[in-house]
Amino acid sequence: MHDLAGKVAVVTGAASGIGRAIAEAYAKAGARVAVADIDAGKASDAASAMGHGAIGLAMDVTDEAQVEAGFARVARELGPVDILVSNAGIQIISPIVDFTYADWRRMLAIHLDGAFLTTRAAMRQMVEARRGGSIILMGSAHSHVASKFKAPYVTAKHGLLGLARVIAKEGAADGIRANVICPGFVRTPLVEKQIPEQARELGISEDAVVRDVMLRDTVDGEFTTLEDIADTALFLAGFGSNALTGQSLLVSHGWHME
């Protein structure tokens, strides 16, 4: 399952953090990887560091034309897509009563519109190539639970579960699997930014945010690591049948259990 030789993968939000860790794991497993990110320079730098025929793509996942152009370039330069990881995302912390409509719409566009647009582009290539594929949506433990001050994030991450289940049903006849990875807190720049924001909103120290908010319900008080998520993404990419599709895998040190 860890041999991706001959496979073509697109990973969004892959210039840093979780996306980059997954892209690097895929490249090491032999895949030809398209590193897609809104920051073209960072995407190119990350791809250059990976080797294995990796390319960098400038892609705003909320822009239909950019998504279509990016996937067309992947098909030309690497071949039709076998694996998609829809990972691009942001976080904005605010109570509902103070949340601006513009920020609400921006959050949903990146997480949900981006997942739809990249999934549609990937599925079109997978169906035409007739060799199946794996679509992985990056959810969160917040796909199953809720926290204060994260209304659009929680809404979007819940929505990804429904999207994956529809993809699984529609894609089955063409051998296309769809699953959602649901990490707990991973100490990426996105999470680092949340610590002082939550401390301010909750009126507690940053240490208390980590201890009593982020890691309180884990079984061991530990952050999920980039390697944990990359290993899960590698497993899902290489799984060979529809036996595992339409599912969400919680990788959260037991923060949420199902």
Automatic annotation (TrEMBL):
Keywords on this record?
A: Oxidoreductase
Q: Which GO terms describe its molecular function?
A: 3-hydroxybutyrate dehydrogenase activity
Its GO biological process terms?
Answer: monocarboxylic acid metabolic process
Q: What top-level class of enzyme does the UniProt entry assign?
A: oxidoreductase
**What InterPro entries has UniProt attached to this entry?**
3-OHbutyrate_DH, NAD(P)-bd_dom_sf, Sc_DH/Rdtase_CS, SDR, SDR_fam
EC id = 1.1.1.30
What Pfam families does the annotation carry? adh_short_C2
Which SUPFAM superfamilies does the annotation name? NAD(P)-binding Rossmann-fold domains
| PANTHER family for the chain | 3-OXOACYL-(ACYL-CARRIER-PROTEIN) REDUCTASE, 3-OXOACYL-[ACYL-CARRIER-PROTEIN] REDUCTASE FABG
* Membership in a protein family: Belongs to the short-chain dehydrogenases/reductases (SDR) family.
**What is the recorded name of this protein?**
3-hydroxybutyrate dehydrogenase
